[in-house]
Amino acid sequence: MDNILLGVGTQKGLFLGRRRGDGSWGFTGPHFPMQAVYSVAIDTRRSVPRLLAGADSSHWGPSVFRSDDLGASWHEPARPAVKFPQGTDTSLERVWQLHPAGAAAPDVVYAGTEPGALFRSDDGGETFEFVRSLWEHPQREHWGAGFGGQAVHTVVTDPRDPGAVTVAVSTGGVYRSRDGGASWAPSNTGVRADFLPDPYPEFGQCVHKIAQDPTDPDRLYLQNHGGVYRSDDGGALWTDIGKGLPADFGFAVTTHPRLGGVAYVFPVSDGGDRYPPGYRCQVYRTEDAGGSWSALSAGLPHEDHYGIVLRDALRTDDADPAGVYFGNRNGEVYASADEGDSWKLVASHLPAVLCVRAAVVQ
């Protein structure tokens, strides 16, 4: 059985889980108690996996911590790893995303932040440089702030091309760079923004999450504030694939680590309640790139259930068969060791879950 590390960022600290040989789980934590952990990365590109955590202290402010011993100890740099430079007239509120780039750029890590900005590290997340070109994009001053704040919350990199980077901004939409971040262009054609006078604007969509297909990096899946979409050309054009879902609103989307066309979402009713449709705890999976969807609920609560899954709290690992994980605002974490066919509760009574990450480690 693969040795899995599961990172669970919550409103009050980080919890680290390890799967035992009998399939049960044990957790340590909270690491960073009383700090909201919005972002976690497990960087397995290194000989020794590195953990990165974006934690936000209400007293000391936000910081990026790193561990090279699977969470036994943590290092915080003497100077902030992520910091807005002088002249921007702003300061960091939190780090929403920590994204290790592909094997072609083994030391590159991106950080997406609130306010909506991008930072790049070339030393595995020890220090970060401000990507000024995105901050100075002429459309940035017109980006709105979603209910959760204005943030670069998603970073996607192309494993074939280190210069190809895609980000999602709430509320700004999708932006792509094909020159290593020197320039950026909006990439939202086909994505609705029902809350704007023009429902199909060039930018301004409230994109909640993007995930990349493992076999075709040009295929992307997008969970929008109303609508689930797929792009087959790297985000240039988006097609609605929400038919067959009980609701096309939601926050999270993730993909299988190896199988093309397989993606997962957790629908949420877009009404006044914002609960799972019918108060049913169900993950939906497509195995044909959004042509059809199947409800996955074996082992999940069948009675009324009100926990919703936030944008970074549904993920897969790189095991074979793949594990799928989600945490909700009820403080519950569910895991599937068979690609979503069945589930078990592995943690409960945690603070509200903000993000999860899982990977095979030695």
What are its keywords?
single chain; 362 residues; mainly beta; Methylamine Dehydrogenase, Chain H; 4-stranded antiparallel beta sheet; 27 strands; 1% helix
Describe this entry's structure for a reader.
This is Exo-alpha-sialidase. One of its GO terms (biological process) is xyloglucan metabolic process. InterPro entries: WD40/YVTN_repeat-like_dom_sf (IPR015943), Xyloglucanase_GH74 (IPR052025). With 362 residues, this protein is mainly β. The protein has a single domain (4-360), classed as YVTN repeat-like/Quinoprotein amine dehydrogenase (Methylamine Dehydrogenase, Chain H), CATH 2.130.10. It has one helix and 27 strands. The protein has one helix at residues 132-135; strands spanning 4-10, 13-19, 25-31, 35-43, 50-57, 61-67, 94-100, 109-114, 117-121, 129-130, 151-158, 161-170, 173-177, 185-186, 207-212, 220-224, 228-231, 239-240, 250-255, 263-267, 283-286, 294-296, 314-316, 324-327, 333-336, 344-347, 353-360. Strands 3-2-1-27 form a four-stranded antiparallel beta sheet, with no helix packed on it. β23 (314-316) and β24 (324-327) form a beta hairpin. The protein is globular, with a radius of gyration of 19 Å. The N and C termini lie close together (12 Å). The model has no long low-confidence stretch (mean pLDDT 95).
> What is the CATH homologous superfamily assignment?
YVTN repeat-like/Quinoprotein amine dehydrogenase
Largest sheet: 4 strands, antiparallel
N to C succession of SSEs: EEEEEEEEEEHEEEEEEEEEEEEEEEEE
Secondary structure: helix percent: under 10%
The CATH topology label is Methylamine Dehydrogenase, Chain H
As a percent range, the share of strand residues is 35-45%
Q: End-to-end span in angstroms?
A: 12 Å
- Computed over alpha carbons, the radius of gyration is 19 Å
What is the global morphology? globular
Strands of the widest sheet, in order across it, are 3-2-1-27
Class from helix and strand fractions:
mainly beta
Protein name: Exo-alpha-sialidase
GO biological process, one term: xyloglucan metabolic process
InterPro entries: WD40/YVTN_repeat-like_dom_sf (IPR015943), Xyloglucanase_GH74 (IPR052025)
